[in-house]
Amino acid sequence: MILQGSEPVIVTGQLFVLRPKSKQLMPKFLAWYLNQKTAQHYFLSHRTGTGIPMLNKQPLGLLKIPMPPLETQQKIVAIHDLWVQEREVTEQLLDNRETMINGIFHNLLE
Q1: How many domains does the chain fold into?
Q2: Where in the sequence is the domain holding 35, given as residue range(s)?
Q3: From CA 40, how far away is CA 61, in angstroms rounded?
Q4: What is the pTM for the complete model shown?
């Protein structure tokens, strides 16, 4: 799982902080890519340990990350952000409908 945020975080030895070395790779694009099925499958296939699976630094460093032009990265990130917003609004809409339906049912019981 890739977390993003603006709050300061203290990283323990079990976590990695990833920062692009190149100005040609947007951090939000990197986070988006690392959450995609291709990267997640790579992580699963390179984990070690039995009780608590872990990913070592070496295989993480060997992951091939595509670097499309910045404009393409920006478009991907923008579309992804819109999709996340749409999902949140849809979930809120479903919650509102459930509340409305439950209210109707309770009124019918009275």
Answers
A1: 2
A2: 1-66
A3: 14
A4: 0.73
